[in-house]
Amino acid sequence: MPCIFLFSLLPAFATFANDDEQPSKVQVRAAQPVIHLDDKTQSISGIQTATLQSVNYHTEFTANGKAINIQPLLALHNQYILALAERRSAAAKFNHAEQNIKRQQNLYRHGVTSKHNLQSQQAQWQTDKSQLDAVRFQGQAIYNEVLLNWGKKLADWVVSADSDKLNDFLSGRQALLQITLPADKHLADDIQTIYIEPSGVRNSAQKASLISPAPQTDNSIQGESYFFRTAADARIRTGMRIAAWIPEQNEERPGVVIPKSALLWYLDQAFVYIKTGREKFSRRSIDHFSAATDGYFVSEELKPGDQVVITGGQMLLSEEIRGQIPNEDD
Description:
This protein is of the alpha+beta class. The chain is 33% helix and 29% strand. The protein has helices at 39-45, 71-109, 115-150, 152-158, 164-171, 313-323, and strands spanning 24-29, 32-37, 48-51, 55-57, 60-67, 174-180, 193-197, 206-213, 225-231, 241-247, 253-258, 264-266, 269-277, 280-285, 290-292, 295-298, 307-311. The chain has a six-stranded antiparallel β-barrel with strand order 5-6-9-8-7-10. Strands 1-2-14-13-12 form a five-stranded antiparallel beta sheet. Strands 4-11-16-15 form a four-stranded antiparallel beta sheet, with no helix packed on it. A hairpin with a 2-residue loop joins strand 13 and strand 14 (280-285). The radius of gyration is 35 Å and the shape is rod-shaped.
């Protein structure tokens, strides 16, 4: 995260007092600066606070993916349906050939037909059997190809003669997504739903449901890869890159959610300002936080009831830094 240097804001408080009368003081208590601002200065500075409420939250991590072109999958489905029809035709011919050869064998045993007729029927039986074996092998080869490239769940959908799930993709009601996790992350066994959004805006994210693990991953990321499905809309088009938010686990954690405006950065450290009294403010470092729909989820450093500064935090930092600058008269 970039450092925010706010020395340019220091003169903002110059209008509040001259050198002889300071509107605020910075004191250090327990190695922590405490900023004192009277009510009037708080009002002029636009400082606003919010009392934190207890929430239960699924911590998340982010991942990336893309909307998949399902044309190859549909092509394999159509090939399989054609192979299935050919197998039925070949099976019918083979059954007919079996009936004929049994009839010829019975006639030959009773001396009604010649050995030549029996041999001709045996040759036809062998031809029909070979054709049936060939179309069976063709169907198995198609299934194996889908299994290798798309995984078992989608392979089972492909070999279904009446697959409503594939029809949802074909009609545009659903979009197929491949989401690849960071190399150090895993999808918990009980996670079936994630949130996705093509433009990366968490507040606009929609649900996506797990289909199955993907047998092949994104070579540029080298993490676990999964297929998901989501309702298709105008924002999702084939080939689009997709941002995903994935729960770390299916159990909720207690904590608080702070607005984005409350979290500030200084010298590579995230922090917030807490109002500890009517005219007192203290900076509190935040080491662990997760992006949430309405801001950031914090489970350790903050607690319900804390009054966090949501507007004017940068001015407080400016005042804190100003209070640490030695007076030339000292």
